[in-house]
Amino acid sequence: MNNYLISSRRKKTIIGFLICLIIGSFILNIMIGSSGMSFMEVIETILMKRVGTMNHTIVWNIRLPIGLMAIVVGSSLAIGGLQMQTVLRNSMASPYTLGISSAASFGAGLGIILGVKIFPGFDNLIVPINAFIATMIAAFILYGVSNKEGISRNTIVLFGMALSFMFSALTASLQYIASEQALKSFMFWSFGDLSKTNWNKLGISALVFLVVYILFLKDAWKLTALSLGDTKARALGVEVSKIRRKTIVLVAFLAATCISFVGTIGFIGLVAPHIARLLVGEDQRFLLPISALIGGFILSLASIVSKVIIPGVLLPIGIVTSLIGIPFFIALIFRKGDRI
Amino acid sequence: MIEIKDLNFSYGSKIVLKDLNINLKSGITGIVGPNAAGKSTLMKCIYGMNKYNGSIEIKGKDLAGMDRSEKNRILGYLPQEETYIPRLTVIETVLLGNMENLSYKLSKDEIDQAYRVLSYLDLEDLDDRYLIELSGGQRQMVYIAQTLIKNPEIILMDEPTNNLDIKRQIEFCKMLRTLNLEKDISIVVILHDLNMATKYCDNILVMNNRGNIYDYGDKNIITCDLMKDVYGVDVDIIEHKGDKIIVHV
C-alpha cells in the first residue's frame, strides 16, 4: 500500500472519530438542561419509547431541534468560513467577511427597531426574512463587483470592508433612534442564540446546508487547486473568477440562512477550517467534511457550555463561542508561518 | 513549433507586446530580457491565458480555435511560484495536474500515474511530504511533475530557477535537457541568468523593453552590443570550452 492510500485511510479515520465526538456531544447536549436527564432516558425518548411524558415534550419540542441546529449551524459556518478563506486566500476570512453580517444586522434592525418588512406578509418572521434579504442584497452587490473583468481578490476584500462599514453605519443610525425596548431586543438578537429554534427553522437550515455542501463537494478539486494561487489554478484549467463568484454567493446564502435564524455566531467559521487544515491539509475532499464536522462539534460543545457556565441561566451561544474563540484567534495571529 | 504573427497585447492603455512575429523552434528555448519586457505576458498569451490580438499557432494549429482539453494536452504551463505555499502533499499536488480528468474518488490508475511521474523525477520518497517542508528546488521539481502528468508536448516555464542556488539551477537546467531528450518535450523557459541561457538553451529569444523582439537565434546572438542595447550594461564575453561566459565590466 502506498503512502497516499495510508494517508487517505488516516483521514477517513479522523472523519469517523469526529462523527463519534459529534454524536457524544449531541447526546450530552440533550441530557443537560434545567431538568437533567440520564443517558438512557435520552436514548429512549429519542427512540419514541416515552411518548406522552414530560421528557418526551422537552426533548422533541426543545432540546432535539436545538441540539441538531447547533450541529447544522456550526457545520454551515465552518464550511462557509473555509470557502471564504479558500477563494479570498485570506486566513482571517470567515462567512461574515465582506459585510455579510453587517448587512444581516441592518436587515434585522429594520425589522426590530422600525418594524419595516422588506418582504410583505409573514408577520412572525419579519426579522429573519429582513436579515436574509439584506444579506443577499449585499451578496449580489459583491457578485456584481467580482464579475468585473480583471478584479483581484484584494479589491473584493476591500469592497467587502466598505460594504461592512456602510451597513454598520446604517445599523448605528437605527440604534440611535431606537426605543429602549427595541434596542434591548436588537442587542439580544445580535448575540446569537439557538433557543428560538423549531423544526421548521432546522429543516430549512439543514436543507440549505446540504445543497451548498454538495455543490462545494462537486467543485472539490477546483477549490483544492485554488490553494496553489490564482495563476497556477488557471494554468490547471480552473476558471478562477467564475468559481470565486459562485462560492461567494453560496457562502452568503448559507450565512444568511444561519444569521436569519440564530443571529451572529462568531469564530466558528474562522477557527474550524484552521483546525481541519492542520489535521488533513488542503485536499477539499477531506477538508470540507472535516471542517463541517469540527464546526458542528464546536457549536454543539458551546451549546453545552452555555447551559452549564452559570447554573440556571442559558447564555446566548454567540457569547460563548466568542469567549472560546478569542484565545484561539490570538494564537492564530502569532502562529509562525501562517498565511495572512 | 510555435508561430506567432502580429501579436499585440496591452493592459488597458499600456502596450505590453507590440507587433510580435516569431517562429519558435522545437528544443529548449530561453526567453530573456529586462524586467517588464513582457516575457511573462508573452508566455501567458502562448498558453491562452491572455486575450491577445494577432495569431498564435501551436504545431500548426490555431490556438484560438483549440478547446481547453486539446490545448491542455499539447501545452503545460508552470507559472512563477507564489509566496504562499499551500498545505498540500507532494502526491496531492501532482494529482492536481490532471485535475480536469480526476474522478472524485480516485482510481488506482490515477494514483499510479502520479506515482510513475514522481518516480521518473526521483521524487517518490517525498510523496507524503507537505510542500512547505521542501526546498525551493524540490518544490519546482514537484510542479514539473504536476505538469508532466498530462504528457504535454510543450512546457512553458516562467522563471523556474528564481530562488534556487547555483547548484539547484544547474541540476534544474540539466533536468530540462533530460526531459527534452528522453520524452521529446519542447521547453520554453524564461530565464534571467544569461550564462544559463547560453549553456542550456538551443535557442534564445531576446526581448527589449519596448514590448518587442530584439533577436532570436542560438547562443551566438548574445553579443556585447546586444547587452548594451537591451540591458544598458557593458560586458565582456569570454569563450570557455565552447561555452559563452558573460562578465560584467
Provide a descriptive summary of the structure in words.
The complex is a heterodimer of chains A (340) and B (249). Chain A is built from 14 helices and no strands. In chain A, helix 1 crosses helix 2, helix 3 crosses helix 13 and helix 4 runs parallel beside helix 11. Chain B has 249 residues and is α/β, with parallel strands linked by helices. Chain B is 33% helix and 28% strand. In chain B, helix 3 packs parallel to helix 5. The longest helix of chain B has 18 residues. The mean pLDDT of chain B is 91. The interface between A and B is medium-sized, with 31 and 32 residues.
Mean pLDDT metric of chain A: 89
Give the SSE order of chain A as H and E letters.
Answer: HHHHHHHHHHHHHH
- How far is the N terminus from the C terminus of chain B? 37 Å
Q: Looking across the biggest beta sheet of chain B, what order are the strands in?
A: 6-7-8-3-9-10
Shape of chain B: globular
Q: Which regions of chain B have little confidence, pLDDT < 50, spanning 5+ residues?
A: none
Please identify the oligomeric state: heterodimer
Structural class given helices, strands, pairing of chain B?
alpha/beta
Ranges of chain A where pLDDT stays below 50 over 5 or more residues in a row are none
DSSP summary, beta strand count of chain B: 12
- The number of helical runs of chain B is 8
Largest sheet of chain B: 6 strands, mixed
The outline of chain A comes out as globular
Write the layout of secondary structure elements.
The complex is a heterodimer of chains A (340) and B (249).
Chain A: H1 3-31, H2 39-46, H3 54-88, H4 100-114, H5 126-146, H6 153-177, H7 180-191, H8 199-218, H9 220-226, H10 230-235, H11 240-262, H12 268-280, H13 284-308, H14 317-334
Helix pairs in contact in A: 1-2, 1-3, 1-13, 2-3, 3-8, 3-11, 3-12, 3-13, 4-5, 4-6, 4-7, 4-11, 5-6, 5-11, 8-11, 12-13, 13-14
Chain B: E1 2-11, E2 14-24, E3 28-32, H1 39-46, E4 53-58, E5 61-62, H2 68-74, E6 75-78, H3 90-96, H4 108-120, H5 136-148, E7 154-158, H6 166-183, E8 186-190, H7 194-200, E9 203-207, E10 213-217, H8 224-231, E11 235-240, E12 243-248
Parallel strand pairs in B: 3-8, 3-9, 6-7, 7-8
Antiparallel strand pairs in B: 1-2, 1-4, 4-5, 9-10, 11-12
Helix pairs in contact in B: 3-5
